[in-house]
């Protein structure tokens, strides 16, 4: 954690906490709400947010002490553990509890069936990433063999995937919002299915930090998690329009109606966790998906990579 700095205006001091998010997405609305509604500042924290544009990049920043907290999928902590890290990265506050990606088709499909992917091409994600593992898991659960029945395109960078699809690449696209809603409005695609509904609950996106950092600054992490819980309360008790208005500064150039529509989609698909607690059932489901993808080299213990102390206190309060 960095030194305290003036909050500007009220004479109090705010402790700066550097946060690196994996991508910029409406899926992470609770984080933006916590910043914009002043929940972090109420706890005495000034969050400095940057976007890494990749789980591997966000984790690299965390391991190199270039950031204090990372918002990534919990699977990244497993990879660090499997590499024999002396200072493990620990998950301490959950933000999303399901995969937040959707299947985008070129034409509207009223009665979607996963078998429609057979013999088609799908723009997917990087090998070992949770979106890709979930995609492969859902395909197998529905009788499809990834890379055999479905041609998964993985050589397009995340920030260029929607553009590539709009330009004619692939029959289907696995995308996070607002890409789907933007493609729909432009008449270039249609959201036809949710990967999250068929893969079950898991610690999809969580706040994490080095174990040593958490041990040295427990009060700071409690304050941070308290703010996360307040934001979760807000996104679950507010209308899509209210949430959209708060987070709009993070999505410049995106139609406010699209932002509201995406918020509604995530509320209805149960994508956002109601509290920061990462329970073992969700963690075990994540491990099952990783094992199915061949990415779980050895078992990892829930208690070694998850700290629920701060989340449970935030929830109780």
Automatic annotation (TrEMBL):
Name of one Pfam family that matches: NMT1
UniProt keyword annotation of Signal present: yes
Source organism, top-level taxon: Bacteria
GO CC, alphabetical: periplasmic space
Entry's localization field: Periplasm
Keywords: Signal
InterPro entries recorded: SsuA/THI5 (IPR015168)
Keyword set includes NAD: no
Domain named SsuA/THI5-like: residues: 29-237
PANTHER family in the cross-refs: ALIPHATIC SULFONATES-BINDING PROTEIN-RELATED, TAURINE-BINDING PERIPLASMIC PROTEIN
Family: Belongs to the bacterial solute-binding protein SsuA/TauA family.
Name of the molecule in the record: SsuA/THI5-like domain-containing protein
Annotated source species: Tumebacillus avium
């Amino acid at each position: 954690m960095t030194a305290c700095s003036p909050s500007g205006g009220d004479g109090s001091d705010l402790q700066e906490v550097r946060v690196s998010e994996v991508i910029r997405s409406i899926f992470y609305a609770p984080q933006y709400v916590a910043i914009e509604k002043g929940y972090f500042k109420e706890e005495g924290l000034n969050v400095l947010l940057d976007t890494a544009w990749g789980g591997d990049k966000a984790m690299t920043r965390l391991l190199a002490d270039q950031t204090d907290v990372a918002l990534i999928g919990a699977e990244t902590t497993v990879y660090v553990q499997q590499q024999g890290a002396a200072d493990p990265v620990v998950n301490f506050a959950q933000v999303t509890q399901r995969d937040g990606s959707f299947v985008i088709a070129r034409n509207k499909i009223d009665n979607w069936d996963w078998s429609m992917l057979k013999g088609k091409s799908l723009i997917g994600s990087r090998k070992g990433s949770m979106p890709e593992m979930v995609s492969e898991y859902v395909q197998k659960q529905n009788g499809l063999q990834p890379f055999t029945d479905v041609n998964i395109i993985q050589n397009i960078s995340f920030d260029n995937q929607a553009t590539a699809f709009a330009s004619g690449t692939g029959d289907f696209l696995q995308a996070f919002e607002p890409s789907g809603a933007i493609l729909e409005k432009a008449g270039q695609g249609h959201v036809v299915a949710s990967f999250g509904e068929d893969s079950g609950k898991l610690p999809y996106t969580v706040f994490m930090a080095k174990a040593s950092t958490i041990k040295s600054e427990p009060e700071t992490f409690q304050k941070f998690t308290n703010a996360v819980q307040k934001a979760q309360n807000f996104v679950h008790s507010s209308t899509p329009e209210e949430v959209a208005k708060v987070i709009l500064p993070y999505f410049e150039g995106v139609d406010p109606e699209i932002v509201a529509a995406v918020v509604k989609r995530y509320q209805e698909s149960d994508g956002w966790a109601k509290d920061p607690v990462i329970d073992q059932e969700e963690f075990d489901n994540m491990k099952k998906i990783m094992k199915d993808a061949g990415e779980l080299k050895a078992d990892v213990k829930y208690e070694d990579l998850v700290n629920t102390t701060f989340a449970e206190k935030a929830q109780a309060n």
